Amino acid sequence: MDYGISGHRVPLHGRVKIGDDTDKGRSAYIEFRKRFLQKSNGSNGSREYEQSAPSETSGGDAEPRTPATPADRFEDLQRILVFQLQGKSDDNPVVVPPHRDLNVLRPENPTIGEMEDLEPRIAEYVSKAVFSSTTEQAQSSEVCIKTKQVIGVCHKSRTLHVGSLVFSVAPSPGVPPQPTHVHPCTTQPKPTRSGKSSIVNASNLEKFQLKIAQHELYEDGEPLVSAILRDMTFEPILHVEQKEGGTQLKLIIDYPNGVQALFKPMRFARDVQTLPNHFYFSDYERHNAEIAAFHLDRILGFRRAMPVVGRVVNMTTEIYDVTEGDILKTFFVSPANNFCFHGKCSYYCDTGHAICGNPDMLEGSFAAFLPTSDLAERKVWRHPWRRSYHKRRKAQWELQSDYCDTVRSTPPYDSGRRLLDLIDMSIFDFLTGNMDRHHYETFKMFGNETFTLHLDQGRAFGKAFHDELSILAPLLQCCTVRHTTLAVLLKFHNGVPLSKVLRDSMKADPVNPVLWEPHLAALDRRIVTVLDAIRKCIDKLENPLPNELNSVV
Ligand SMILES: Nc1ncnc2c1ncn2[C@@H]1O[C@H](COP(=O)(O)OP(=O)(O)OP(=O)(O)O)[C@@H](O)[C@H]1O
Ligand SMILES: [Mn+2]
């Protein structure tokens, strides 16, 4: 089934509208949008904000006042949660109770390490491995471990590759680095012929990657997360190269021990918003959006985004000096005497869109690298609610009011956790204003019953004064949400505001303040809108409108 663009065209220069107002359907989305737009300054702050120049200034240390206690505590929604925890209200089709949610039940939750039979084996290798050197191995790399599959390759010298792990073998003083050979079945350590060897433990990122599980990237409170953030912040940068593919410039950063990060450079100050005449697909990426989205994903309890940290690098010593290839030819000094480069990519990689240091210090986001495909291949899925990526075309979901019924009856959205994951993602994206969710990825080895990665938030946090309701289309069209997601939203709405928790979480980042204050304020406002939407879904269920009425609302 193709969830792609419809090919339907609106008149040239016509405004691209969201939703079809003439559609006589059952779509909560269209109804909600109408109601939402009719609202004036509602007491709960749920209104569409126009793009307007704010009076606040960017950044700054002064903590703004947190919003006054909201008038509406959504007690009706709270009651549903309490009933469900008491084993009542189980049949509520809008709020999926924990005991029907595979993300909560997790009958199985193996890690990549367990699936690949790596974790226990590595421990075994550490205790059993014996290193020796033979001259013939020096000629080429060879396969040196066989278990369920080939997982270890001896490389030219001093390193042993096991999946994405690289073990270094330190030679004795005075002995040149030697090729290594592992005897995994040897229980008694044998003396090596030409020197003692030792195994350097896997890096924090490698350990993290092996612990990625079927239902989440990392566990709540996982200490490796802050260890990785620290590594990416303080470890020396050994090598840099441009990442192929994608539309905008990204660099792959190599640290010691095989640790890698995906670097997105800062292009604008925090308070520069998406240009009013730019579509979502021609917006620039914002490095700070990647940092903020990682924190937000963690705070909301999803744990589906890789750790990201901000860092200021010296463009000369930490980029120019450690890179090679065509990218070197794109470095130059600007008229303002700043060191700049533009790299090579399909958009915005020219002198007019150069990335410039100040004068040669450059800020960027560093996202911990996902496991390589050798260790854990990913499957790329077309997002059913993908936008048209065309200035005059609409996507199918924008035209068909019962679109969710179509999605719901199609695997993998017809059972299990997948549809609920997309609804979580739409709430996450609505909070951050990310309209750029064209594809999503999962780890192949876990099959369909696995979480969807929250990858690529570069176009989030672009408009602080506009709430893009169409991002919520999956929630509004399907009218279903996890109990746990609703509980988290209510917790922040009625307790310590999300803006405060996120601001505090990001204080530890080296490039704090990460977000412009109006973007933080927008989060608290948008939570109300999501809660309103869920309430609307429940109301519709409890008080279905007669058919004729339904068609005119
Ligand atoms: N942390 C990561 N580690 C490894 N690979 C990653 C990571 N994040 C993203 N990628 C891969 O790199 C690709 C491009 O990344 P991303 O989508 O963030 O960049 P982009 O320039 O916005 O790309 P596009 O223009 O296609 O949206 C992704 O499709 C993903 O497969
Ligand atoms: Mn992107």
Automatic annotation (TrEMBL):
<dbReference type="GO" id="GO:0005794">
    <property type="term" value="C:Golgi apparatus"/>
</dbReference>
<feature type="binding site">
    <location>
        <position position="248"/>
    </location>
    <ligand>
        <name>ATP</name>
    </ligand>
</feature>
<protein>
    <recommendedName>
        <fullName>FAM20 C-terminal domain-containing protein</fullName>
    </recommendedName>
</protein>
<feature type="binding site">
    <location>
        <position position="264"/>
    </location>
    <ligand>
        <name>ATP</name>
    </ligand>
</feature>
<keyword id="KW-0325">Glycoprotein</keyword>
<dbReference type="GO" id="GO:0004674">
    <property type="term" value="F:protein serine/threonine kinase activity"/>
</dbReference>
<keyword id="KW-0547">Nucleotide-binding</keyword>
<dbReference type="GO" id="GO:0005524">
    <property type="term" value="F:ATP binding"/>
</dbReference>
<keyword id="KW-0479">Metal-binding</keyword>
<feature type="region of interest" description="Disordered">
    <location>
        <begin position="177"/>
        <end position="197"/>
    </location>
</feature>
<dbReference type="Pfam" id="PF06702">
    <property type="entry name" value="Fam20C"/>
</dbReference>
<keyword id="KW-0464">Manganese</keyword>
<feature type="compositionally biased region" description="Polar residues">
    <location>
        <begin position="40"/>
        <end position="58"/>
    </location>
</feature>
<feature type="binding site">
    <location>
        <position position="285"/>
    </location>
    <ligand>
        <name>Mn(2+)</name>
    </ligand>
</feature>
<feature type="binding site">
    <location>
        <position position="456"/>
    </location>
    <ligand>
        <name>Mn(2+)</name>
    </ligand>
</feature>
<feature type="binding site">
    <location>
        <begin position="367"/>
        <end position="370"/>
    </location>
    <ligand>
        <name>ATP</name>
    </ligand>
</feature>
<dbReference type="GO" id="GO:0046872">
    <property type="term" value="F:metal ion binding"/>
</dbReference>
<dbReference type="InterPro" id="IPR009581">
    <property type="entry name" value="FAM20_C"/>
</dbReference>
<feature type="binding site">
    <location>
        <position position="456"/>
    </location>
    <ligand>
        <name>ATP</name>
    </ligand>
</feature>
<feature type="region of interest" description="Disordered">
    <location>
        <begin position="40"/>
        <end position="71"/>
    </location>
</feature>
<feature type="domain" description="FAM20 C-terminal">
    <location>
        <begin position="331"/>
        <end position="540"/>
    </location>
</feature>
<comment type="similarity">
    <text>Belongs to the FAM20 family.</text>
</comment>
<keyword id="KW-0333">Golgi apparatus</keyword>
<feature type="compositionally biased region" description="Polar residues">
    <location>
        <begin position="185"/>
        <end position="197"/>
    </location>
</feature>
<keyword id="KW-1015">Disulfide bond</keyword>
<keyword id="KW-0067">ATP-binding</keyword>
<feature type="binding site">
    <location>
        <position position="441"/>
    </location>
    <ligand>
        <name>ATP</name>
    </ligand>
</feature>
<dbReference type="InterPro" id="IPR024869">
    <property type="entry name" value="FAM20"/>
</dbReference>
<feature type="binding site">
    <location>
        <position position="285"/>
    </location>
    <ligand>
        <name>ATP</name>
    </ligand>
</feature>
<feature type="active site">
    <location>
        <position position="436"/>
    </location>
</feature>
